[in-house]
Amino acid sequence: MTKQDKKKFITKDIFKQAVKESFIKLNPKYMMKNPVMFVVEIGFVLTLLATIFPNIYGDTGTNLALYNGIVTFILFITVLFANFAEAVAEGRGKAQADSLKKTRKDTKAKLLDESGKFTVISASDIKKGDTVLVELGDIIPNDGEVVEGLASVDESAITGESAPVMKEAGGDFSSVTGGTKVVSDWLKVEITATPGESFLDKMISLVEGASRQKTPNEIALTTLLVSLTIIFLIVIVTLPSMSSYSNVSLQVSTLVALLVCLIPTTIGGLLSAIGIAGMDRVTRFNVIAMSGKAVEACGDVNTMILDKTGTITFGNRLAAQFLPVDNHNEEELTKVALISSLKDGTPEGRSTVELANKLGIFVEEKSYESAEFIEFAAQTKMSGIDLTDGRKIRKGAGSAIKEFVAERGGEIPKDLDEVTDKISKLGGTPLVVCSDNDILGVIYLKDTVKPGMPERFQRLREIGIKTIMCTGDNPLTAATIAKEAGVNEFIAECKPEDKIDVIKKEQALGKLVAMTGDGTNDAPALAQADVGLAMNSGTVAAKEAANMVDLDSDPTKILEVVEIGKQLLITRGALTTFSIANDVAKYFAIIPAMFIVAIPKMKILNIMRLSTAHSAILSALIFNAIIIPALIPIAMKGVKYRPMRSEALLARNLLIYGFGGVIAPFIGIKIIDICITPLLRMFNLG
Fold this sequence. Notes:
The protein is of the alpha+beta class and 686 residues long. The strands form three sheets. Strands 1, 2, 3, 4, 5, 6, 7 and 8 form an eight-stranded antiparallel beta sheet that branches. It has a seven-stranded mixed beta sheet with strand order 9-21-20-19-10-17-18, with helices on both faces. The longest helix is centred in the C-terminal third of the chain and has 39 residues, at 557-595. 46% of the residues are buried.
């Protein structure tokens, strides 16, 4: 599936396959999985018999076969449209699965023996526990753990991202995925999956929907829809006996049409498509959900636990402020710090240059091309530059710079320790700057919050989600970052078991918890959380413990994943509201028109002023059929998500989809009635 196709909710190929699947799904064994639409299919069979044998149920009337045939055709189209909606949703998943299957080739593997020599065999013959060698240009034959070596791996086959990822033995970046390609050096990999059970195989199975089961929310809603269907079925069954007292003749086709219009066919036809589309949206976001339940759980998350480093912050300590000491000013310090960092490629050096430029301090780099850059060394604990005029500029740890200055006969400023201590207490790193024997001041390095994070946490607060930051930093540092990022709570000096404890504590309060992780030490907490998002670059243990895997290995993506889950629930709720509101409107369309002759006082309820009983029934039935494909784009794309409190969200949905669900049928049925009335009169059905 191309990027352009991904943007479309339905492509030409998906459309063709969906049309074919719509007919295949007419099989009663399949239709029974959707009770509401199965009732419609049974109604189709009953009216089909009435079309072929008009008097089979003892019905009387003119052009009975034609009327029954029209009802039969509309019922058939209704079932077909419902199947089409589900087939479109499944088609997107299958299209993505096909693109994933292209990454599976009949690759060769270099199987290592005990002596370290390798034998080239087919990748399909590799077993769990085997050790293979993968070198530059080789495809990794199956999932595994790096046991030796260091190499760059191109994971674009599964992530879509072209930037290679470094893999090495030990740590949290030792996991490799079958189907990815080594683009530098070599690795020895111990295979951890059997053929057919690799992560890629699981992905294909999941996006195809082969292992998809209904979620608890879907089951509950299906139960409600079945209950409503049974209630209306009982009502319809009793109508013939009631009509005998009012001298109204109700044909079987009319009763079936009435039943189909009153039961929640709209949401019944779209329910499965909404669930499949929700998983598809997560998949297109490069996150693999291990089940539909995991996606749904995202929509109900109350608490989110996030690591500080790499998730909320960049993880690298970057220049945040220039603090002069003694009689020096900030501009003087900034310029010297900038010169010392011109050739410093470390995050600290680059950030120093960026901060100086942001403050309006620039220097001509060509003037310093002949200068000698002194790289940072663990022994000296400082870096700097030796200028052509003999001046030596250094920046580094306070103790190292003090010693450097003292050797040159310089004095230590009295306020230096006060400034460095203040930075240290805030959890930052003080980088002292000197020029020869003169200390100018300190660069305040801090772990910087990623741009946009405070706004994203504000969005979460607006929808009632509490955020908890976990960090190994001291309480003062943790408090500083937490305040800057805007999280609700934080856990300082956090250990792996602390994450499990806070998850259990929140769950004991009846809350659903989400968290991210990539290391083996995160596995227990990922398993305990209701939504565990593991990084694809992480360990096998983390990915197996989680119920979602982010192929891009972006820890902040859990924020978007939760919003997708919210969108799924909102879409389902909105279309359910629309469907039930539809049924209310159709009730006012059909019932008055059916009984107005026998009960003239019911004329007051015929607010649509529909022409005849037949036109009212057929108009409602036609509208009931066409509204399903009309809502497919909403079911597939999802209702637009806006962060807000649940009360405000409920009010908004009731206004838009509840009120809209009542108004749309009134307008639609009236227009259809106007269009078909002349045709019905032409065939003496009016």
